[in-house]
Amino acid sequence: MKTIIVDGSAFDTMPGFCDEIERKFTSGLTWSIGRNLDAFNDVLRGGLGVHEYGEPILIRWLHADKSRGDLGCVFDTIVEIINDNDVKPHHRAPTKGG
């Protein structure tokens, strides 16, 4: 299973989160993804870069506690999006202590 590492120490704002997601999930694209949670949801489904549509992945979120503090309630929404895409238990939300 492909593991994608999101590093919470690399950003402290929503635009920074979008930059991190673009770096980690859409490597090799010649265009940019949207800068919002709908685009993040689309990226998680696959087919836009580093994993194929429906391909099982594991998301490892380093420094998740920092991200939780930096992003506030948006962090909880991001985790919900990750969990909602867990159609075939393959996307895993960050655990406490990240």
3D structure, described in words:
The protein is of the alpha+beta class. The chain has a single domain, classed as Barstar-like (Barnase, Chain D, 2-Layer Sandwich). Helix content is 42%, strand content 12%. It has four helices and two strands, in the order E-H-H-E-H-H. It is globular, with a radius of gyration of 12 Å. The protein starts with a strand and ends in a 14-residue tail after the last helix.
Strand elements, count: 2
State the CATH superfamily name. Barstar-like
* CATH structural class: Alpha Beta
Counted by DSSP, the helix tally is 4
Assembly category: single chain
Task: Tally the structural domains.
Answer: 1
CATH fold-level label: Barnase, Chain D
The average pLDDT is 85
Topology diagram in text:
Blueprint (H helix, E strand, L loop, with lengths): L1 E6 L6 H12 L11 H9 L11 E6 L1 H8 L1 H12 L14
TL;DR of this structure?
The protein is an alpha+beta fold.
Keywords, separated by commas or semicolons:
2 strands, alpha+beta, globular, two-stranded parallel ribbon, 12% strand, single chain, 98 residues, 42% helix, 4 helices, Barnase, Chain D
